[in-house]
Structure formats: structure tokens, C-alpha cells
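Progress narrative, work stream C.
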Amino acid sequence: MGIIIEKRFLNVPEVARYLGFSTSAIRKWVRLGLIPFCKVNGGIRFDIERINKWTEKKIDNSHIFN
């Protein structure tokens, strides 16, 4: 069963759990500009709608997750 997300913006641990990757991988992708994110009050946040669209685009390019 998948995770049900009810809020629009996720933090690093939440998006890591949602995508099934480590927080260190998510932070690396942020640093490299590989994942869409925004800064809110100095913290990194991920718009769940943009993340869903991003993952749909990346499905055929699974090398992005290495």
C-alpha cells in the first residue's frame, strides 16, 4: 500500500519517504539541481504536485536516481 500525502509541501524526510530514497540522496539531488524544490523560511520544501510531475517525466530515465 502506498503512502497517502495530505499536505501540499513536504520537507526532506517526507519527500525521501514518499519517493523511497534516503534523505542524503534527496539533499544531494537538491544540491545538484536534479529535483524541483523551493525555499520556505530558509528550509527546503517540495511541492507534491511538482514532485509527482517530475517523477512521471523521470520514469523513462531511471538513471537519474543513481
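Work stream C, second folded protein:
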Amino acid sequence: MRPPGLGQPLTVVSQQDPLSDFELRLENAAFRATGGVSQNNRQAGFTPAYRNIRTGQTVISRFADGSQAPIHVLDGLPDDWVVARDEDGRVRRVLATIVSGFICRGSFYTREAAARAMSVGNPG
């Protein structure tokens, strides 16, 4: 049985700060000792991903060349999610409606939900 809220559609309307490389580093630091980071949940089938909570669109984390990334990177996000790029074309900031998380067995998990799932040993 899946714990309440795991893998369910998000009800969040926005996050405090739009995602950026800095925000991703802060998230990684906050979840470093939990299943809310890639290196701690990959073995359970979690794939780094992003969700636009306004539209429900979910995408797997990808490098700029389109190949799948083993961690959260911003460069492969859809162009219409990007708010700012640097002079080299790297993504610096995305829409405030984009959240990082994971896809596991067809469901999107926020970092919090992935950490919870891993702590109870039931990722899906």
C-alpha cells in the first residue's frame, strides 16, 4: 500500500523562488541524507525529473544535448519553461511553476515524497 500523498498530483500553486542552479544546490543540501536526492534513490528506480505544476507536464532531467541526466540539471528543460539563460545559452532560471522531483513507476514524486517513500521502503 502506498503512503498517503506519494506519487499523487501536486496541489502546490507555486514555490517561493524559481528554480535555478543555486536553488537546486540548496535542495540537494536540504535532502542530502534522504531519498530526496538522486544518489540515494536511484537504486529504487527513481529518475530525476521536473513538473510544471500549472500544466501538469512532467519531463525527465536531460542535458542540453538531450541525453538523460543522472541528476537534476536545467539545461535540457523545454524552452517555454526557461526564464533566463546566460551568455553561453545555459539555463539560469525557470518558471516559478517548475518543481524538481522524480519519476518512479510512472508517477511523479516531489523530493519530499521521494524521501518519504524511501524512508518507508515503498517507492511505489
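The beta strands are 47-52, 58-60, 82-85, 91-94, 98-104, 107-110. No further action is required on this item.
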